[in-house]
Design brief:
Chain A: It is a multi-pass membrane protein. The structure holds three protein chains of three kinds. By secondary structure, chain A is mostly helical. Chain A has 13 helices and two strands; from the N terminus they run H-H-E-E-H-H-H-H-H-H-H-H-H-H-H. Classes of the chains: A mainly alpha, B alpha/beta, C mainly alpha.
Chain lengths: 284, 465, 278
């Protein structure tokens, strides 16, 4: 009955594209990660690529940087995103203005953002003009290895916050009004409302934002790459950029091994986190 | 065409054009857009199937060639001028595609496209050991047997000829480069400095500049991967001077990099400049363009780079050209001074170029080796090295720094290591940045470089690694 | 109490609006100003008004650069964005619908695969190898299927969540009315999932239009570059030429900004509708 009414062939085009272009290459990457490979022919080398990948100095920095980058950007997007969304939904006149402004950077490509910030944060750029004008020393936002990663995080938050806000606004406006009305009768105030009603009901949304921005933080590298190229030194190198550089040098087998490692890392962090948050949600 | 006519009106420019191709007859060549070829060029062009009339010989209306290159700035404009001249001459259309100016990226793009059969009709390629990456025997048109190959000087032709098959792969696209120290003569004069002949003297000069003025002794444009590598790569002259088979033995894993004192000195020199504070405050923000301007204006006294810096100076700070002089990168003693050179990258023709385009593409390759095309080139930029073409000398308006640098090529020079060995890890530029900003000592850096290179060699499947 | 709060919230409001001036508007203002300056002046990187207003020259230059290469890039980006999103919407909604209504068997495996696709980073080089096998490497169709495959999991999950809120009685009613399985989807279900379609169309158009990684990997230098790759190549070619560079950056950003200004209300409608299912 079900089979007739909901024929599988309707799902076939989607699954076909997805499996051919995404699933098969993903499985193939397990094989190619164990070869030296020039796209035409490959020689099986076992786990050598994985050993090489971990012996690279850039990998060690990249692992730490990726962890910092993902954690910082993800938590900032969740916290700031929720705060701004609360503000937007509170009915204040400037709420809508804020929502639009914050979302604006999402409309821009990474190359455009990279270009803009490189000139704005240049040692002679407007930010440093302001700093020196106020009698402060010049800050080398992108070339001082102690702050370059922080700068990249800040720019990524600037760019990605809009998406988080939109998702949170959607989640918040889905909470039925009468919950708050009922709670108002009980004499609950803003803060209590937030912890008793908003927070429990918004947890699925938090889970969405958390997962999406964590995955993004772990695997995206193109904004960093256009800003610093992974430098100075290895101070903003992330796994994605290490893989990209290997790809650029033509080390396809090794680059694929790096990608497999990234895949494993993302899986072992995101899957448990996701189920942890879901359980938390059930308890509340 | 209008451009050409307009340009000939300017007497001064005509003079410079004339100097560009020594075989050209001034005025007519440019004014007629090169439709008439010069006598010397005609001889070599007497092609078997076509008639003698140049205009009838090259009519390729309706054909479009795709050309890809990764050159930027005035030299890119110079290419456009050459292509425009060719379009004018033949009616063909040339579509230019700009590849990433990051050498690794653009080479990878071409490599991937070669592996998947998507190469453009013509493209600019590194020559030497790197040419092998693209499997030239499968992908690049063999030019041997083309009569006009005699336009190219022997030394260049040798490098781009396959020793086993005799196939000739490319024609030179730009000018050669000589690396060394470019210095501001005024600063040197004002401070009463002598040209250093040893690294010790060089450092002593830096010290005098540092203590006696506000000027940065050495501009170090470590902002880009190319800027940070020049000093180190230029050291290769001394490396091969110490051991002529260095690159060969290294590729065969018969020696380790840290065993070569000369090789290590390349790292020590970079480290010295940082340690003693002879660079600007923030080398990582300093672009090559900024550094060139600083050198020309006398805000920086010296810059270790290649002769192509003079094209940048011409573009951005033309008034400073005559202030700039050249001396070789000094090493441990004054007896062995010499320079490292880069051969011009070449234009390669796609082996699988569609039959209907083949003749046109070959004509373009031929055109690019002629005086007319060099004339067009010189309308946009003053050459900063040798074109590696017969009958084409440097024009009169070439800067004295370039002339000085060129004079060293015959005296004592060696191409850099990449022409002999393709082993180079993906982090070379980063490691050198870290040496140049004090994060790595030379000893730490060499360990990193050796490790990084080993991975690259393994990935390339080089025997012995 | 009420008055005190409104005063505080007014202060907060003012602070927030002022903050956005610093965090957002100055940057946009800087970009716009710089795009109208001559090379030497633009290189100063200041917020000063242009000494010589060079807007028309700069923008004309960008449009004329390489015989209008930017228009070609626009055409490619448009084809890429429209085709990817169109295909995505059709295949993802259909797949989501079938997988949601059928349980077990292939459906269960497909569900797991799709879920994994949300998390797994794409295997770049093997994907290239696959495209090469299919003879669509370095072509626009090749890039389009990559975009569809990349966005497929998220879109499918969104549609699935929404389809689950459509009661099965509607299906039965339609079938009693004589609808075949295809008509049931095309005429009944697809119109009902419109809010999700709106969200997917708007949000994913932005992603595809601005995508840099995929075009860079799968179509780099194929001659048919997208606007993002075009700006990137200008960044290499015009290292110190900020006037032209910012003019180009603004030109390529405009279409999506205009799209957003028109459709910004719709985004939230769809998102809210999607969130209802919880």
């Amino acid at each position: 009955m079900n089979k007739k009414r909901y024929p599988m062939w309707l799902a076939v085009p989607g699954l076909l594209i997805y499996i051919t272009i995404f699933v098969i290459p993903t499985f193939a990457s397990f094989y190619f990660s164990m070869t030296t490979w020039n796209l035409k022919s490959s020689v099986f080398t076992g786990f050598e690529n994985f050993i090489s990948f971990f012996t690279m100095t850039s990998t060690r920095s990249a692992l730490i940087n990726t962890a910092i980058y993902a954690t910082v950007t993800c938590s900032a997007k969740v916290i700031l995103g929720l705060l701004i969304a609360q503000y937007v939904c509170s009915g204040i006149r400037t709420g809508n203005y804020l929502k639009i402004v914050v979302f604006f950077p999402t409309l821009l490509g990474n190359v455009v953002i990279g270009t803009a910030f490189q000139s704005v944060l240049d040692p002679g750029g407007i930010v440093n003009q302001a700093l020196t004008g106020a009698g402060l020393p010049v800050v080398r936002f992108l070339t001082d290895k102690t702050i370059a990663l922080a700068t990249c995080c800040a720019i990524d938050i600037w760019k990605g916050l809009g998406t988080a806000v939109i998702i949170f606004v959607a989640g918040l406006s889905a909470i039925p009004r009468d919950y708050y009305e009922a709670s108002a009768i009980d004499g609950a105030t803003g803060r209590k409302n937030f912890t008793r009603i908003t927070l429990p009901l918004i947890i699925p949304t938090i889970n969405t934002v958390l997962t999406l921005s964590l995955i993004g933080g772990l695997r995206d590298y193109d904004l960093i790459y256009t800003l610093t190229g992974g430098g100075p030194g290895y101070s903003t190198e992330v796994i994605g950029s290490v893989v990209y550089k290997l790809f650029s040098r033509g080390s396809y087998g090794l680059a694929t091994a790096g990608n497999v490692i990234l895949f494993v890392i993302v899986s072992i962090i995101v899957f448990p986190l996701n189920s942890f948050v879901s359980k938390w949600e059930e308890r509340l | 065409m209008k451009k050409f006519a307009a340009i000939t009106l300017t007497a001064a420019l005509v003079a410079s054009l004339a100097g560009c191709s020594s075989s050209g007859t001034p005025g007519t060549t440019a004014a007629e857009g090169g439709a008439k070829t010069t006598e010397a060029a005609k001889e070599t062009k007497g092609n078997e199937t076509q008639g003698e009339q140049p205009s009838g010989k090259w009519d390729f209306s309706g054909i479009t060639l795709n050309v890809a290159h990764s050159t930027t700035g005035d030299v890119s404009d110079a290419f456009d001028a050459q292509f425009a001249a060719f379009e004018e001459l033949t009616g063909a259309k040339i579509e230019v595609e700009h590849l990433s100016s990051n050498a690794d990226e653009s080479e990878n793009t071409l490599q991937v496209r070669a592996a998947t059969g998507n190469l453009p009709d013509l493209w600019q390629t590194s020559i030497g050991a790197k040419l092998q990456n693209i499997s030239p025997q499968d992908n690049i048109y063999d030019l041997s047997g083309q009569e006009w190959l005699s336009n190219i000087v022997d030394s260049y032709r040798e490098i781009v000829t396959d020793k086993e098959t005799g196939a000739v792969y490319v024609v030179p696209s730009t000018t050669s480069n000589v690396a060394g120290v470019f210095y501001n003569k005024k600063v040197y004069e004002d401070m009463g400095l002598e040209i250093p002949e040893t690294w010790e003297e060089f450092l002593a000069n830096c010290e005098k500049i540092k203590t006696g003025s506000e000027i940065d002794p050495c501009a170090s444009p470590y902002n880009t991967p190319s800027g940070v590598q020049i000093l180190f790569l230029a050291q290769y002259y001394y490396v091969q001077n110490e051991n002529p088979d260095f690159a060969k033995q290294y590729t065969a894993k018969e020696l380790e990099l840290h065993e070569s004192e000369a090789y290590m000195r390349g790292l020590t020199k970079m480290y010295d400049l940082w340690e003693k504070g002879y660079q600007c405050e923030d080398p990582l923000s300093l672009t090559f363009e900024d550094a060139s301007v600083q050198l020309a204006n006398g805000e920086a006294a010296m810059l270790v780079c290649r002769t192509n810096v003079m094209a940048t100076v011409e573009e951005l700070a033309p008034e400073g050209i005559d202030n700039i002089g050249f001396f070789p990168l000094p090493d441990k003693d004054n007896k062995s001074l010499g320079v490292a050179t880069w051969m011009p990258p070449g234009w390669a023709l796609n082996k699988n170029v569609p039959a209907e385009k083949e003749e046109c593409a070959l004509a373009l390759m031929e055109f690019l080796t002629t005086g007319e095309s060099i004339d067009a080139y010189c309308t946009k930029t003053t050459p900063t090295g040798a074109f590696m073409l017969n009958g084409v000398d440097l024009p009169d308006n070439v800067s004295t720094a370039v002339i000085e640098a060129q004079s060293w090529v015959d005296k004592a020079s060696s191409p850099v290591m990449e022409y002999f060995s393709d082993i180079k890890g993906s982090n070379m530029a980063t490691i050198l940045q870290m040496v140049g900003t004090g994060d790595y000592t030379p000893d730490q850096a060499i360990t990193e470089i050796e490790q990084d290179n080993a991975i690259d060699a393994q990935q390339k499947g080089i025997a012995g690694w | 109490m009420v008055r005190k709060r409104s005063l505080l919230s007014k202060i907060v409001e003012v602070i927030i609006v002022l903050a956005t001036l610093v965090t957002h508007w100055i940057i946009f203002y800087f970009a716009i100003l710089t795009s109208g300056k001559e090379k030497a002046e633009a290189a100063q990187l200041t917020l000063d008004l242009p000494e010589k207003w060079n807007f028309i020259e700069n923008y004309t230059y960008v449009f004329q650069y390489q015989n209008g290469a930017i228009l070609k890039a626009f055409k490619n980006s448009l084809i890429l964005t429209v085709s990817s999103i169109l295909i995505l919407v059709l295949v993802a909604s259909a797949t989501a619908y079938v997988l949601q209504r059928r349980t077990g068997g292939i459906g269960a495996i497909s569900n797991k695969l799709i879920l994994a696709g949300l998390i797994v980073p794409a295997a770049i080089i093997p994907t290239y190898w696959m495209l090469d096998r299919l003879h669509i490497a370095n072509t626009l169709p090749g890039l389009i299927v990559v975009e569809v495959a990349t966005l497929f999991p998220f879109a499918t999950m969104l549609y699935k969540g929404y389809v689950s809120t459509i009661p099965g009685e509607i299906d039965e009613a339609a079938i009693i009315d004589g609808c075949g399985p295809f008509a049931l989807f095309a005429r009944v279900i697809f119109p009902m999932v419109k809010p999700i379609t709106a969200t997917v169309v708007i949000l994913r158009s932005i992603v595809v239009y601005n995508d840099f990684q995929n075009p860079q990997y799968y179509m780099s230098g194929s001659g048919s570059q997208t606007v993002q790759l075009f700006v990137f190549s200008l960044k290499s070619a015009w290292t110190t030429d900020y006037g032209h560079l910012f003019a180009a950056a603004i030109i390529v950003s405009l279409p999506i900004i205009i799209l957003y200004l028109f459709l910004n209300k719709k985004i939230l409608e769809g998102m809210t509708a999607g969130a209802v299912k919880g």
